[in-house]
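Title: Comparing notes on inverse folding

I've been comparing how different people in this forum approach sequence design from structure. To keep things fair, I'm posting one structure and asking everyone to reply with a full sequence. Here's the target:
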C-alpha cells in the first residue's frame, strides 16, 4: 500500500494518552430513545456468546444504528485534535484524509456537500455518545449521534493474530479497509440510509431475524463503499500494491458472521447474522473496488443478490 502521496486528515481526536483510556474516566449513560447503556451492552455480549456470535457484531451494529435519539450524557473527554505525530497516528490520518478527498469529490458530482467525520483514537476505553463507552472489545464502530468513528488500533493486531485476516505488510491495506468501512457508515448517515433502516428495524420489532437482515444490508453496503474508496484512491494515488486486495478479501472473510460463529461455537445461526457471510463481505467489497460507483453498492435494491 502506497501511503506517501495520501493527504493527512486533521479530523482526528487523539485520546490515547488521556485519563479516560484504559478504563478511567466517567461513564456516559444514554437516557431515552437512541443509544445503548452499559447494561444493554453486557446483555448483548451474553446473548452473543450463547448463540455463538462474536458479541462485537451485536454491540457494534446495535450502537451504530441506534445512535440518533436524544441522550443525556456526561461531557466527553477532549483529546488532542489534529494529525498525530506517531507512525500509527500518521497512518490513520492518511487513510482518513484520502476518504475525505474521495467522498467530497463523489458528493460534489451530485450537488451535495460532504461533511467529514471525526475519528477518535483511544486505548482500552473512552466515553462515547453511543453506548456510554467505547471499549476495545467492541472493535471499531461509527456513532451517528456525534458523527465520530471510535478506533482502538489494537484491533489491527487482532486482525492479524487472532482472526488470521492478513500477514505482514499487506495488513496495512486490511487496516485501511476497516477505516474505510466505518467511513462508509458515515456516508450512509449523510444519505439517510441509517435513519431509514433504523425506522424499519423498529417497525420490524427490534432485533428480529428481519431486523438482522436489514443490518446485514447496511454492513455489506459499507463494505462496498470501502471498495469505492480503494478504487478511486488507486486511480488518484496508485494506492494498491501486489497482495493488498488479497489481504483485504482475506480480512473480509475472517470477520464474516459465519466464520466467526463457526469458530466460536462450531455452528452457524443465519437468522442472527448482522454483518454478512465471509463470501458476501468479499463480494460486495469487490463490487465497489471493481466498479467504483455507488450504483454498484445498492444492497437494498429488490433485485440485489446478497
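Reply #1:
Here's my take.
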Amino acid at each position: 500500500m502506497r501511503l506517501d502521496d495520501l493527504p493527512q486528515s486533521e479530523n482526528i481526536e487523539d485520546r490515547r494518552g488521556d485519563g479516560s483510556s484504559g478504563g478511567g474516566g466517567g461513564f456516559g449513560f444514554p437516557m431515552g430513545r437512541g443509544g445503548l447503556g452499559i447494561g444493554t451492552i453486557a446483555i448483548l455480549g451474553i446473548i452473543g456468546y450463547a448463540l455463538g456470535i462474536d458479541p462485537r457484531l451485536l454491540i457494534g451494529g446495535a450502537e451504530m444504528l441506534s445512535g440518533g435519539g436524544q441522550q443525556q450524557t456526561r461531557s466527553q473527554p477532549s483529546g488532542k485534535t489534529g494529525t498525530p505525530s506517531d507512525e500509527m497516528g500518521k497512518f490513520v490520518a492518511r487513510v482518513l484524509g484520502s476518504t475525505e478527498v474521495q467522498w467530497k469529490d463523489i458528493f460534489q458530482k451530485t450537488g451535495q456537500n460532504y461533511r467529514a467525520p471525526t475519528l477518535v483514537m483511544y486505548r482500552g476505553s473512552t466515553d462515547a455518545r453511543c453506548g456510554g463507552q467505547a471499549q476495545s472489545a467492541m472493535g471499531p464502530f461509527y456513532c451517528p449521534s456525534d458523527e465520530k468513528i471510535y478506533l482502538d488500533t489494537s484491533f489491527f493486531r487482532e486482525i492479524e493474530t487472532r482472526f488470521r485476516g492478513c500477514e505482514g505488510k499487506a495488513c496495512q491495506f486490511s487496516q485501511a479497509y476497516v477505516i474505510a468501512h466505518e467511513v462508509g457508515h458515515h456516508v450512509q448517515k449523510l444519505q439517510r440510509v441509517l435513519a431509514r433502516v433504523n425506522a424499519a428495524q423498529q417497525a420490524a420489532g427490534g432485533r428480529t431475524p428481519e431486523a438482522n437482515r436489514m443490518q446485514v444490508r447496511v454492513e455489506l453496503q459499507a463494505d462496498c463503499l470501502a471498495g469505492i474508496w480503494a478504487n478511486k484512491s488507486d486511480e488518484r494515488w496508485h494506492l494498491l500494491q501486489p497482495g493488498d486486495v488479497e489481504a483485504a478479501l482475506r480480512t473480509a472473510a475472517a470477520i464474516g458472521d459465519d466464520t466467526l460463529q463457526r469458530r466460536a461455537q462450531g455452528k452457524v445461526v443465519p437468522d442472527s447474522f448482522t454483518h454478512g457471510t465471509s463470501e458476501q463481505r468479499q463480494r460486495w467489497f469487490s463490487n465497489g473496488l471493481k466498479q467504483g460507483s455507488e450504483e454498484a453498492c445498492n444492497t437494498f435494491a429488490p433485485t440485489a443478490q446478497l
